[in-house]
């Protein structure tokens, strides 16, 4: 039986598989033992097959020697539950205004439903994922976020005051895959709702990650005509923000990408999570996908042979 299966493999398909694996090898060597932080946005969690494919990609990353750390959002999922309980919600500069009741829903949806769904899917694909919120091991200490240009009170919206990465490092070294919900704990023990992009950026910086990948529902950063911008420098990003081309939910995303790159993360990528195998395409192919934000707007592909330059 096994013999028959092998014989029926189409030679062209076999050559394609071999080519893809060959192309992946230098990337597997580049990232071996390195941390890659993947932010999985609620808008990218569109259908069951894509979610399952994402989980399989993360499990595979770990098996080939990377250290994936997942930080997830869940904005649309929070919105649905708020709607079900008849609660209005409002966003200011991409942040959800969060009163005490909304905070309860945020914590239940992110720390409960969404976190455990991702953990479960990764584990179904042979990974060993562990779900955390910022409260576990004091991972994320938060303080209330005050908007600089606006007087608006965002309620229990927080910003990261400090990341204690010990629990994440411990899980990584024991071959677990940390899956983190963006809820922080204040000095007073209260919960704070933090934009998941901001948490992902800070965690990537503190862990000294090789790469930060932000999965969302656009092909990447688009220009005023809707064309994909494949590589951006910090100066180009600033011009696009000033021109109003980057706005809404893309603002915290791009801000965290810039912060991460300024704090030692080699590159940040904004990637279309609605594309099948988006994570693997970005990691393992020369072309990559989405928008890369780096000090020079590009990262050279790894050498096909020999050691990686230090
Ligand atoms: N220049 C831009 N290019 C692409 N998307 C943009 C841009 N400016 C604003 N956006 C908006 O940002 C959204 C992504 O942010 P968000 O909805 O918060 O996603 P996520 O849930 O993945 O964090 C896009 O769907 C788009 O509506
Ligand atoms: C302060 C704030 O806005 N928090 C977000 C947290 C979830 C999130 O960031 O989800 P996405 O990545 O799917 O957008 C919210 O309440 O929606």
From TrEMBL:
InterPro entries: AceGlu_kinase-like_sf, AcgluKinase_fam, ArgB, Asp/Glu/Uridylate_kinase, Glu/AcGlu_kinase, NAGK-C. The record marks 39, 253 as: Transition state stabilizer. Pathway: Amino-acid biosynthesis; L-arginine biosynthesis; N(2)-acetyl-L-ornithine from L-glutamate: step 2/4. GO terms for molecular function: acetylglutamate kinase activity; ATP binding. The keyword Signal does not apply. The keyword Repeat does not apply. Substrate binds at residues 74-75, 96, 193. Its main location: cytoplasm. Its EC number is 2.7.2.8. Keywords: Amino-acid biosynthesis, Arginine biosynthesis, ATP-binding, Cytoplasm, Kinase, Nucleotide-binding, Transferase. It catalyses: N-acetyl-L-glutamate + ATP = N-acetyl-L-glutamyl 5-phosphate + ADP. Belongs to the acetylglutamate kinase family. ArgB subfamily. This is Acetylglutamate kinase. It comes from Salinisphaera hydrothermalis (strain C41B8).
């Amino acid at each position: 039986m096994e013999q028959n299966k092998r014989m029926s493999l189409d030679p062209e398909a076999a050559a394609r598989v071999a080519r893809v694996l060959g192309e992946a090898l230098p990337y597997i060597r580049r990232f071996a033992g390195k941390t890659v932080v993947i932010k999985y946005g609620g808008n990218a969690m569109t259908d069951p097959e894509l979610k399952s494919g994402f989980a399989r990609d993360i499990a595979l990353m770990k098996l080939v020697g990377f250290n994936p750390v997942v930080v997830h959002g869940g904005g649309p999922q929070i919105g649905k539950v708020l709607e079900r309980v008849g609660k209005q919600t409002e966003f200011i500069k991409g942040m959800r205004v969060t009163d005490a009741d909304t905070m309860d829903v945020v914590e239940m949806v992110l720390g409960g439903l969404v976190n455990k769904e991702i953990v479960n899917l990764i584990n179904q694909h042979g990974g060993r994922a562990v779900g955390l919120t910022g409260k576990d091991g004091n991972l994320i200490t938060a303080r209330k976020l005050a908007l600089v240009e606006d007087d608006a009170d965002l309620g229990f919206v927080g910003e990261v005051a400090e990341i204690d990465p010990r629990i994440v490092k411990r899980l990584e070294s024991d071959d677990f895959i940390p899956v983190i919900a963006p809820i922080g704990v204040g000095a007073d023990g209260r919960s704070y709702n933090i934009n998941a992009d901001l948490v992902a950026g800070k965690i990537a910086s503190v862990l000294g990650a090789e790469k930060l990948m932000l999965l969302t529902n656009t092909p990447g950063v688009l220009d005023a005509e809707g064309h994909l911008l494949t590589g951006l420098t910090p100066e180009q990003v600033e011009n696009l923000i000033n021109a109003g081309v980057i706005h809404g939910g893309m603002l915290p995303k791009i801000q965290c990408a810039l912060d991460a790159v300024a704090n030692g993360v080699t590159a940040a990528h904004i990637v279309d999570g609605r594309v099948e195998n988006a994570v693997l395409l970005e990691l393992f192919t020369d072309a990559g996908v989405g928008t890369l934000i780096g000090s020079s707007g590009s990262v050279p592909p790894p050498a096909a042979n020999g050691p990686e330059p230090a």
